[in-house]
């Protein structure tokens, strides 16, 4: 079976492991699917993120385990890699498991040829409520990476059925914003303000009329002012301004820049390489393309990033990002795009804003001059990827630097927006149900003047939509806490 992502990391999986049957076709992709050992942690509703769709439905067929079973069934009659063919006893055990599982969950699955299996509507049903939160990679004992499995599934589905227009619109935000920013801003403003246009977009494209689509800021992020040598005692750092901060929330990038400069760093904004075909279009991690299954587009963006940072890999210059899903995609998903060993070296230089500050505080004596806070206890919501990669520890540490600043990290699953998921008409209700599990009740219970902190772009918009209150990025909180900065 041809795959769109590089699954070679799973090449040795299944050797000596007690697998529940690797599918007969699919090669290393099938092995990635088969790491599930049926612990059913994805069907728990205690602390943690996994699995948001199971949490709102209570239905086993919307769990990671059910999705694994669906993929196994889809792959088992294909014509893939002969090296992955199982023994007859393994086939029988796997078939028995699938039959029992699908009977109990109510999913009917006909065996099909692998090339058309990815377009089967029943596989679509199994994946329908997956929000690519990455919690399964962290919280599942077997580390099932359903986010990447879903990306491959969508790419395979697009190969058979074509890429839907809505998918191209949502996935192509980096290019729309980078090449046609005025047109994008005008189109979104008209859609948000004129109800008939919103209704038409829902009817023709499936974009929920009940949502306000985030609008690009009047001015994109721009910073060309050089920094004096004397003010850069701590050396140089590169600020990676992602698509969302660049075009939608430039004030966040400006705040991060001010904090880093006040901390004593010479900040250089990440720019495309001089040889880039689009030197004026900002760099992009490719996240929107990955989540929509547009792998070749994602690979193109990743190549731009790698080329831009090629010289920094040897210099080991720290690269700091602001949007969790973007920076952590660079640190994780780039491995799956088959771009070579340099990706591993680059990953060691990538930090979220708060991760970098925390690391410098611990290892290199960084201290920020921060004024005392007299604000009510703040509420902090962690992005799913922050939780999946263990980055919330750095968030807690950095917030603790502000004298008198009290905060509570609310125990939440996914906010429910999940990129474009909450904008899709058929997923609006599910999106709001995810938010209502814990996040929105906690926001409503917080004091009216209590700061709300959420680093995720989608998270902030979900909070505002569901509560009418605005959450802020940690860079803004730290900037406002700097001594000498007016409130």
Automatic annotation (TrEMBL):
Record-linked Pfam families: Fer4_8
Keyword annotations: Iron, Iron-sulfur, Metal-binding
GO MF annotation: an example: iron-sulfur cluster binding
Record's keyword annotation contains DNA-binding: no
Boundaries of every 4Fe-4S ferredoxin-type domain copy: 119-149
InterPro entries: 4Fe4S_Fe-S-bd (IPR017896), 4Fe4S_Fe_S_CS (IPR017900)
Protein name as catalogued: (Fe-S)-binding protein
Organism: Methylocystis heyeri
């Amino acid at each position: 079976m041809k795959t769109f992502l590089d699954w070679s990391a799973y090449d040795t999986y299944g050797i000596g492991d007690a697998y529940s049957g690797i599918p007969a076709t699919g090669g290393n992709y099938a092995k990635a699917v088969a790491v599930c050992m049926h612990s059913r942690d994805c069907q728990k509703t205690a602390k943690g993120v996994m699995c948001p769709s199971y949490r709102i439905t209570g239905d086993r067929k919307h769990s990671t385990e059910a999705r694994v079973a669906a993929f196994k069934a889809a792959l088992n009659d294909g014509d893939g890699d002969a090296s992955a063919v199982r023994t007859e006893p393994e086939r029988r055990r796997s078939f028995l498991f699938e039959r029992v599982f699908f009977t109990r969950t109510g999913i009917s699955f006909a065996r099909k040829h692998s090339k058309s299996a990815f377009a089967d509507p029943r596989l679509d049903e199994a994946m329908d409520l997956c929000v690519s939160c990455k919690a399964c990679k962290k919280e599942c004992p077997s580390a099932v990476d359903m986010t990447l499995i879903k990306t491959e599934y969508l790419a395979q589905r697009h190969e058979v059925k074509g890429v839907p227009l809505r998918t191209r619109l949502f996935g192509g935000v980096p290019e729309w914003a980078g090449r046609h920013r005025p047109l994008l801003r005008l189109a979104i403003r008209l859609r948000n303000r004129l109800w008939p246009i919103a209704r038409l977009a829902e009817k023709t494209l499936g974009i929920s009329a009940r949502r306000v689509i985030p609008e690009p800021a009047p001015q994109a992020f721009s910073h060309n002012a050089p920094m004096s040598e004397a003010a850069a005692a701590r050396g140089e750092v590169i600020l990676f301004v992602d698509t969302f901060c660049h075009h939608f929330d430039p004030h966040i990038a400006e705040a991060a820049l001010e904090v880093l400069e006040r901390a004593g760093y010479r900040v250089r904004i990440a720019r495309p390489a001089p040889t880039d075909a689009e030197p004026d279009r900002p760099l992009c991690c490719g996240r929107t393309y990955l989540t929509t299954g547009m792998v070749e587009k994602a690979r193109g963006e990743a190549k731009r990033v790698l080329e831009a940072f090629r010289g920094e890999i040897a210099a080991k210059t720290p690269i700091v990002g602001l949007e969790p899903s973007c920076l952590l995609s660079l640190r994780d998903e780039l491995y799956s795009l088959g771009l070579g060993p340099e990706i591993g070296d680059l990953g060691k230089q990538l930090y979220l804003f708060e991760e970098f500050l925390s690391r410098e505080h611990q290892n290199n004596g960084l201290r920020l001059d921060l004024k005392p806070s007299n604000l009510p206890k703040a509420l902090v919501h962690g992005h799913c990827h922050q939780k999946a990669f263990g980055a919330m520890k750095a968030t807690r540490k950095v917030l603790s630097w502000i004298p008198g600043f009290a905060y509570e990290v609310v125990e939440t699953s996914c906010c429910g927006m999940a990129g474009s998921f909450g904008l899709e008409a058929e997923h609006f209700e599910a999106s709001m149900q995810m938010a209502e599990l814990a996040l929105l009740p906690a926001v409503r219970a917080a004091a009216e003047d209590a700061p709300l902190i959420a680093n995720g772009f989608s998270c902030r918009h979900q909070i505002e939509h569901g509560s009418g209150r605005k959450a802020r990025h940690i860079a803004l909180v730290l900037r406002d806490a700097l001594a000498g900065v007016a409130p």
